């Protein structure tokens, strides 16, 4: 019996420059990624679309290196896992789900939502970094 599988793969554009924070434990980078889904409305036959925003976190030396290369509008593909945390605010429990990034690919090309039209991606994983 499997213990489960927690993996997310997203392709989209950064909504803002990444935020890099340094602490005694190392680097932590926060990012907001926009992904888009489109479909044709059955009733009106018009194309509709919806943008979803995802909170991403990346840790360690890789986060520090990648933060120098990313900026608002960067097209990236990430693979990671979901982490949900909770906190109390004004007596109510709130939940936050984010993606902890395990792997990141840089992509270029038009940001018109056409993944197939992007140029080959530069893949960045821990085995290729000198640290």
Describe the structure in brief:
This protein has 131 residues and is mostly beta strands.
What this model shows, in words?
With 131 residues, the protein is mostly beta strands. It has one helix and seven strands, in the order ββββαβββ. It has a five-stranded mixed barrel. β2 and β3 form a beta hairpin. It is globular, with a radius of gyration of 17 Å.
Largest sheet: 5 strands, mixed, barrel
Give the number of helices: 1
Spatial separation of the terminal alpha carbons:
36 Å
Shape: globular
Following the backbone from N to C, one meets helices and strands in this order, namely: EEEEHEEE
CATH architecture: Beta Barrel
**CATH 4th-level superfamily:** Nucleic acid-binding proteins
Approximate strand percentage: over 45%
Helix content: under 10%
The CATH class, by name, is: Mainly Beta
CATH topology: OB fold (Dihydrolipoamide Acetyltransferase, E2P)
DSSP E strands, number: 7
Q: How big is the Rg?
A: 17 Å
Strand order of the largest sheet: 1-3-4-6-5
How would you classify the helix and strand content by structural class? mainly beta
Average pLDDT number: 85
Q: What's the number of structural domains?
A: 1
Low-confidence segments, given as residue ranges, are 112-122
Task: Show the helix and strand layout.
Elements: E1 8-14, E2 19-23, E3 26-40, E4 47-59, H1 60-67, E5 75-89, E6 92-108, E7 119-124
Parallel strand pairs: 4-6
Antiparallel strand pairs: 1-3, 1-5, 2-3, 3-4, 5-6, 6-7
